[in-house]
Amino acid sequence: MTQWSSRKVDELRNELKSRGLPVSGKKSDLISRLEAASDSDYGHEDVVEGEVFSKISRVSKIEFSSLIEGIRGIPTTVLAVSAIVLIGGTGGGILFGDDLVNWMRGSTDYELIDFDSNQTRAYAEGLVNLGHPEWEGRLSGAVEEENAAQSIKTNFSNSGLPSTLEEFEIPIYYMGTEFDLTICQPGAVGGLFGGPTPCSIADLNRDETEFIHREDYVVQGYSGSVNIPASSNAQVVDLGMGNETEDWGSAANGIGLVWLLDGENGGPGTESNTILMKRAQENSLRGLITINSRQNCDELVADDCVPYSKSLDITQFDERPYDIGFIMVSRSVGEAIVDQVLGGDAMLQLQVDVDNQDDGYIHVPCGIIEGESEELIVIGAHHDTVYNGQGAVDNTAGTATVQEMARQFGLLQSELGKPELTIYFCTWGGEEGGLWGSKEWVKKHRASLQDNLRLYINLDMNHVDAERNSGLTLQGNSPADVKHIEGIVEEFVKSHPELADKYEISVRQLESAGLSYNSDHGPFVYDLFEGSDDDEEYGMTMMCYGSGSSEYHTYLDNMDRFNEESLAVSGIIYGSLVRHLAWN
Q1: Thinking of the domain 117-172+358-583, which architecture would CATH place it in?
Q2: CB contact at 8 A, 324 and 287
Q3: pLDDT digits (tens, 9 = 90+) for 122-161
Q4: Do 394 and 553 touch, CB atoms closer than 8 A?
Q5: CATH number for region 175-355
């Protein structure tokens, strides 16, 4: 066993990066590369000037940049003499002079890319205009998502990038047209002997409060269909926070209410949609209503919490729950149901029209800049949204940023020529329903990605609200790239002081095993080496999170508060990282 065999993959890759060597491939490839480098190691104390000069004189400009990283351990006096020899032999130090200066001062010069915020807004408006004519979203499986993918592909092509469009078949839910939530107070004659059924059409003086779809209630992803008329007087049961100790069985054939709350004294809060729906299915509920009491409260609407749409993990169900209607209501609507239905003689009407039994297609457009090597950087964002809003921040913002970055790199390629690394700009359908686009794309291209993926950059909600501004966070599990980002941020502060002063930038290095699986970086980190010999292998990623989007997944996430200026921060910084890696 060599000294490298016992190392983890992350450690091997970091060692390769520190030597300026490629980091792609399986663990055995990484070990072989390090063993070969060790056999010809020149980074030790007894290196003589002639050996260093011999190595330097044989390398190309690209190779020299890697060599600089590999010889940082050589004594300064030796390198100084070598530099003099090199300068003397190249007519005054023109060749490789900048690299030597950068090495001697221990820093790297970064070139910042350009970024047009106005063009980015135009991309965003183009996507929003493709939304559903009534509900405004770009739901996966719907024509609006497909049209968005086609538009993005066209924009990649217009930027001078060869483009592809792949589609993947996944579990889909389709929104129908019939949705209703109503509280009915029976009329004076309803229920009298021989009279009409309470809250039926014949109960003429009944009093109905009909709530507004998207504003007062929203359907949850992968809900089933149900039609419960008020006249059926279905039982409604308050299940508290919906934990396993609640009497779910008491709501069988009826409607269960679950309050979305944070746990007290640090305890667990209400569990996920997936867990709640499984309990509803196991206990034969017909309807499930969650009441928002913990998110965006009093921020968007005074004295209320606006409902939002979240999906459930449909892969956790042996049978898709086709006959259970699942919605979320605002806090005020939930309180009205409790007061008037549970605490009075009113009746609840619930109709949800969703087909969750079929599979359908989502789409992944990519714009491609081919490099000299197959080593690959992927920049991605999801272009789908929840059904109930434009998704201006989540994630029209990220998708527009990727399109503007692609346009800038099309211009860069014409200026700088072919890069060393290959660059993919991709957007994913199916994120909101379970990261389907990125998962299926990684699965399809896994063999190539295992060998060649250098870095995945994810832009999901990289937007900062102008009024609720608490800055941006740039983070990832790639130590070398985090260091690059720190250097690029320093250059950004000098070159764009007006943006740096306005938007605080935090940079964080994260452990691979501690990364979340809540956006499209997840498949690139955790699924990339699925089934490989070493289960400790992780893909490398960098991400950006903005701040201030209280409208998350609500009907209010629209262009009214869109702040395209804030997208320049992550666009420039991550674009400059890609430029540095691909052309340096």
Answers
A1: 3-Layer(aba) Sandwich (3.40)
A2: yes
A3: 999 999 999 999 999 999 999 999 999 999 999 999 999 9
A4: yes
A5: 3.50.30.30
